[in-house]
Fold this sequence. Notes:
Layout: H1 2-22, H2 38-41, E1 44-55, H3 66-82, E2 83-93, H4 103-112, E3 119-125, E4 135-146, H5 176-185, H6 203-214
Parallel strand pairs: 2-3
Antiparallel strand pairs: 1-4, 2-4
Amino acid sequence: MPNSFLSQGIVILGLSLGLCACNTVDRMQTSSIPMDDYRVRHPITLSETSRVLDIFPAGGPGVLDQHSIGELVTFGHLYRQVGEGPILILYPTGSGVPGHVPAEAIRQVLAASGVHAPVRVGSYPVTQPALASPIRLSFTGLKAKVATPCGEWPSDLASGSTIQGWDNKPYWNYGCAYQSALAAQVADPRDLVEPRGETPPDTLIKARGIETIRKGTDPSTAWTTKNTAISNVGGN
């Protein structure tokens, strides 16, 4: 009988040691945003950077064509939204520009778009005279961009010789392209920090909804759709 008790004790002790060994297995800790999440690894940041516009005037000497005017108007709206300081106009040197446009004509288009910033004129050297050289405009403004470069692969996705990449975690470059596209598409970088102020509510629309509910009818908007029979398309 004592021998059987001793054998049972040895078995229980062995099982306990086995359970203790299992308890040392490394486990992944989860949280609301894991440290390997793409929003933490590739964050979008706001920075003061140069905004550049290249125009190729094609309206003849001293004339801005409609395409170039449209680009300048859009550039002016962008300056009014996120720009600060002077606007720099650089003319190429060492190569002819199709229809040289004076800076005053460019300034007038910018002023018509609501830009009242100082304009400075300079030049830049042309490295390839055989290619068309644009008139380059630039200003310093707020821009959203990803703080880390995309396309980096510091570790193998599925190594055959090691267990590297077997952790079932996002790979390093995951989400970088998505974050870069989101930063490039946002109209105002400040919208990524906080929402814009709300506009005043439409009093007439609110009153109409309240009156409709008081009458016991459906306050939703009724949309009427008129469909055309397939047999009537194209005539008889």
